[in-house]
Fold:
Amino acid sequence: MTEQKITPLKTLHRELGGRMVPFAGYDMPVQFAGIMAEHKATREAAGLFDVSHMGQVLLKGADWATLAAAFERLVPMDVLGLKDGRQRYGLLTSDDGGIRDDLMFARMGDDLFVVVNAACKDDDIAYMRSDLPDGIELTELTDRALIALQGPKAEAALAPLCPAVRDMSFMDVIAADLSVDADMVPVWISRSGYTGEDGFEMSVPADKAEAVARKLLAVEGVEPIGLGARDSLRLEAGLCLYGHDIDLGTSPVEAGLIWAIQKARRPGGAREGGFPGAENVLRDIADGAKIKRVGLKPEGRAPMREGVELFADPEGGEPLGAITSGGFGPTVGGPVAMGYVPLDKAVPGTNLYGELRGKRQPVTVTALPFVSPNFKR
Amino acid sequence: MKFTEEHEWLLAEDDVVTVGITSFAAEQLGDVVFVELPEVGTEVTKDDEAVVIESVKAASDILAPLDGEIVEVNEALTDNPSMVNEDPQGDAWFFKIKVSDMSPMDDYMDEAAYAKFIE
Structure:
């Protein structure tokens, strides 16, 4: 077995009693107090997550327009129109219009700060290096940790270290100093996350990450959260997990991610197409896709997890789709799932059946998210 | 009380054995959110899947530790699966099985041997 990589918070995780598991090549905490308790702590107060396994990349070009045009060749998003200090959700599309990865990108001055998934980062970085034009400089920021602070009390916990966060709106990004005891720690902060709650993600120099985490965990109501609750929180928020809900075989339109493709890149837009797989993606935008990602609410208490096949009827017939992620939603208080179904079965309220241990159980197509977001607009 | 390598505890009274999971197993499973119990009257063979137990993280099975007939199940777990985390070696027993041959019980671990097994 290959050696697991570690994050700058490894010592702290062990000290806090985190149960460590291998994830995307990293030794990561799956839980501390327990998934249910951590999930609720995040929804009700604040949770601190180590997401340092994710890839952090800085892109620089001759000027903003040059850099934005270069990045627009890889993503179907409006990069040029992104204002300084703002962040967007993005997708790296494949040549046939599938999804190589999903990511967050932020404009900081004339640079782009990009955060990609841990499991995809080596491929993503190699791909960007080979496909971005000459003159674009890519730096993988391996000397930075990434810490998320999520929940309704996140602002109150972070503001004493950095009052400027009070003025940030959802998807704002700033470079700022965190006052940690006698130290001033230079960080990049975005007001975003992966839980459906208000909150922040902070890119922190690796050697200061533990001090920052300890300072925040010392605040009443801030609890350490593992990957288990991170997954149940994002599932209730209706957010995709790469490799499960979206992958090379799903198109952005099937995945219900058209909202992330701004007008400028759509049919008839100022910079229509011009990204990998544009032909297929633009056709799907114009004509619609044949299948769609939907929320699914299984009846009763039994969770339906990834791979559970969906049927139109209680018996007989061929599967018409499958669950791509599912589990128990602690805030919903019952099982929740997402999956792909044909368009005519994608209307909320449609009754379907999921086959669990050989028995078909009723499932209702449900609007996403399961839990209303709590962002600061 | 006896213990299996599948982290079940077994408590025999006359020819009826009560079956649950150990505190160690409950801790490893994490928050239990769903329990599917067998029907009373079911004849089971050793290693048959008797119970489905789902935690927030994953699904697992509890196997019948002996041949016999399910004579009672703990219905309270259906409505309140979190009992498995709160009192795994007490109130949160899963089922009682009536056995004709108790001799396989001798093959299972006693408390000291189980404590060593999970070290």
